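Posting for a labmate who doesn't have an account.
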Amino acid sequence: MGAILIIVGIIVFIISVATGLTTGSFYGFFIWTSVGATITTLLFSMFQIMRNQEKILHSFAQSGEILRNNHIINKQCQNCKYEYGLLLNFCPNCGYRDGRK
């Protein structure tokens, strides 16, 4: 998805510059190029946001894996065998709490 945003951003900028050149005036060129640059900047920003989110999710997955491997924060539901945090009083999967559903 990220590569598509970059490619579309480049294409939008090229088309806006070409359209601006065909207007025959500096004002038209300036407007079209500005619009193209704005859209391209938004697309590139979306790409950066997506890439940062992937990095954050990856780091969360790694930290969760480390904690699960150390058996620090999880307990297992007696009803459905789902693993969840020690701080919870009920199973988020089935709702089991203190011997009742």
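Reply:
Got it, the structure tokens are right above this. Strands lie at 74-76, 83-85.
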